[in-house]
Design goal:
Layout (H helix, E strand, L loop, with lengths): L25 H17 L7 E3 L1 H8 L3 H13 L3 E9 L6 E11 L2
Antiparallel strand pairs: 1-3, 2-3
Helix pairs in contact: 1-3
Length: 108
């Protein structure tokens, strides 16, 4: 069961991105906001991370993949997210997919 049920149109955000001491750039804050919405939509009681392709994340944020990678590094540096690459595992063959996706876990 995902946290996102389509009924409650809101997103919870860490207040830390609004503090004047926050060192994140405006675009990193936007990326964090989008990642927060995706976390609410795609995680549930069994998993605490979600995944996106670079193309999907570019559509989600309205920024190109190069910009997304730049601001992802910023979010990682300041301890807002953790990210890693992963593969699908085919249930029938047990083999990893050739297509890679990026997994994201929000830390704040």
């Amino acid at each position: 069961m995902s946290k996102y049920n389509g009924v409650n149109p809101f997103v919870q955000l860490s207040r830390s991105i609004f503090h004047k001491d926050c060192k994140l750039s405006f675009r990193a804050k936007w990326l964090y906001t989008v990642l927060s919405e995706l976390e609410h939509r795609y995680t549930g009681p069994k998993e605490d991370f979600f995944f996106r392709t670079q193309a999907d994340l570019a559509k989600d944020t309205g920024m190109n993949p190069v910009s997304n990678r730049k601001y992802i590094k910023e979010l990682v540096e300041y301890g807002y997210i953790k990210t890693w690459q992963m593969h699908w595992i085919d249930k029938e063959t047990g083999k990893k997919s050739e297509k890679r996706v990026n997994a994201y876990r929000l830390l704040r």
